[in-house]
Design a protein that fits this description.
Blueprint lengths: L1 E4 L4 E4 L7 E6 L10 H19 L3 E6 L6 H10 L9 H23 L14 H13 L3 E4 L2 E4 L15 H7 L14 E6 L14 E3 L1 H13 L2 E8 L3 H14 L4 E8 L2 E3 L2 E2 L10 H8 L2 H9 L7 E3 L1 H28 L12 H12 L4 H17 L4 H17 L12 H15 L3 H13 L2 E6 L2 E6 L2
Parallel strand pairs: 3-4, 3-9, 9-10, 11-13
Antiparallel strand pairs: 1-2, 5-6, 6-7, 7-8, 11-12, 14-15
The protein binds zinc ion.
Length: 468
């Protein structure tokens, strides 16, 4: 299979370092605010990629970190403190804030049906390992101390700018050293920050302080996945400076680091950046409260290539609702055809449905082309609708769609049984139609609609489905 590597800016053949096993590291949340649907996209894309590897029978170790100490979290803690009143101060409040928003993140991922990572390291649990990493960088002359801070010296990085495709000399000429910063070069970045009064801090060889953001991912990824691992992922906004700096640190420490870099495109709302200040912020819980169905958001994401930006609008979500119904209705028909006429031995037997599996796999093997892979599902739906009397095909098609839905993490499933009184009503309506009493037939149809059952008259008779 081929994967687009952001590092080489080409699609490359993907061969895992260890046969049969894949190590993936994806940058996780900084826990200081409510998770929004932009977070959902990154988490979902990498969840699908992980599930597809597993579908292909690979073992996967999936790591996603949590940044639980950071300027943003401390700022939030300060804002939430009531001045002059007793109660927790900044240090305790920072812990409270990070725990609260990590809990919300976990809740929201569960709400969306996005699987938890195999390992979820927290920055605050990695301080000693980060300190050792920084010591190594100082020893190798890639880092220097300056009055309790430690900086990475980017002049010592062999290929700084290679991921973000920038020339370090040009970057340097556009950067400034801010007043109070004690670094040598304007592009040098902090590995360790000297403690500020009343803020969370830890002991280190350079005095009390806390780690910079970038160092945690270098320390955690190599600790859990090894000096070299298969895939490092994250949003495209992390390429610079975060991922560029991770490479400088890890290569500086003598590690081979990630083989493939994968980046998902960002999400906009009606063409604008999502921001609380713009009033267009959509939290995951807000979305779920309105639509009650994570599949609609997932279908929106599947319909755009993961590397491209995706624009969210309510009209598009309405379109996704129609797409989901097409699949659900077709699946229901297939299941019924199977129950009614497929001989027991023919159930789920692969046949001509396999040609659609091939299309699905070819699309996914080509840098996870999810829109094309989803199109294969709709082609299969069309084919099955046209040949619904072929019970063997219907049965195999239903099985394949369910299998693909599980790679996509979609909850699409069979609708189950209806109660016997609904069956009686349907029969009464059929009788009314036969005797030409269309008024009565229409009354029953409306009554059932009120109970959440939709009737559809087809040339083969009346079928029902539950309202989604
Ligand atoms: Zn990271």
């Amino acid at each position: 299979m081929k994967i687009y590597n952001s590092l080489t800016r080409t699609k490359e053949e993907f061969i895992p370092l260890k046969p049969g096993h894949i190590g993936m590291y994806v940058c996780g949340p900084t826990v200081y605010d409510e998770p929004h649907i932009g977070h959902a996209r990154s988490a979902y894309i990498f969840d699908v990629i992980r599930r597809y590897f597993e579908y292909k029978k690979y073992g996967v170790t999936f790591v996603r970190n949590v940044t639980d100490v950071d300027d943003k979290i401390i700022d939030k803690a300060r804002k939430e403190l009531v001045p002059e009143s007793p109660g927790p101060r900044v240090i305790e409040k920072t812990k409270e804030v990070s725990e609260k928003y990590l809990r919300l993140y976990h809740e929201d991922m569960a709400l969306l049906g996005i699987r938890a990572p195999d390992k979820e390291p927290k920055a605050t649990e990695y301080i000693p390992k980060m300190i050792r990493f920084i010591e190594l960088l100082i020893k190798k002359s890639h880092a220097y101390q300056a009055d309790g801070d430690v900086y990475f010296d980017i002049k010592t990085a062999v290929e700084y700018g290679k991921l973000s495709n920038q020339n370090p000399d040009k970057m340097e000429s556009g950067a400034r050293i801010l007043p109070g910063e004690k670094k040598k070069g304007p592009m040098d970045f902090a590995l360790w920050k000297k403690a500020k009064e009343g803020e969370p801090s830890w002991d280190s060889p350079w005095g009390r302080g806390r780690p910079g953001w970038h160092i945690e991912c270098s320390a955690m990824s190599s600790d859990i996945l090894g000096e070299e691992f298969d895939i490092h992922g994250g949003g495209i906004d992390l390429i610079f400076p975060h991922h560029e700096n991770e490479i400088a640190q890890s290569e500086g420490a003598g590690k081979k680091f990630a083989k493939f870099w994968m980046h998902n495109g960002l999400l906009t709302i009606k063409g604008e950046k999502m921001a609380k200040s713009l009033g267009n912020f959509i939290s995951i819980k807000g979305f779920m409260a309105g639509y009650k169905d994570a599949d609609l958001l997932k279908l929106l994401f599947l319909n755009t290539h993961y590397r491209h930006p995706v624009d969210y609008t309510e009209e598009k979500i309405a379109g996704m609702k129609a797409e989901k119904e097409r699949i659900t209705i077709a699946l229901d028909k297939m299941k019924r055809a199977e129950d009614q006429s497929a001989p027991a031995g023919a159930k789920g037997k692969p046949g001509k449905s396999e040609e659609f599996r091939k299309k699905f796999e070819e699309a996914m093997d080509d840098d996870f082309n999810m829109p094309l892979a989803l199109a294969a599902v709709f082609e299969l739906v069309n084919e099955a609708n046209k040949n619904i009397e072929d019970a063997e095909f219907a049965s195999a098609a239903a099985k394949l769609i369910t299998e693909i839905a599980s790679v996509f993490g979609l909850k699409i499933c069979f609708q189950g049984e209806i109660s016997s009184d609904v069956k009686v009503s349907i029969q009464m309506r059929n009788d009314a139609r036969k005797s030409g009493d269309y008024k009565e037939a229409d009354r029953i149809r409306k009554e059932l609609l009120g109970r959440g059952v939709i009737l559809e008259d087809t040339k083969d008779g009346t079928i029902w489905r539950k309202k989604l």
